[in-house]
Amino acid sequence: MITIQVNGSSMEVETTATLQDVLDALAIDTLGCAVAIDDNIIPRTTWASFALTSQMNINVFQAIAGG
Question: Under 8 Å CB-to-CB from 1, ≥6 apart: which residues?
Fold first, then answer.
């Protein structure tokens, strides 16, 4: 198990967990959202293969249109 931070809360996940696994486990509606890990936006196309490591800081944001 490894410990990660998701929107400021600690979470333990399997060492083989991907970003998509975490989003699924938290039942996050990913429609219209963006994910940043350690202040870097992660492309949606890589979520299912993006391997997590201990102490990563994940932030999930809802996209908001505006000007």
Answer: 12, 13, 14, 15
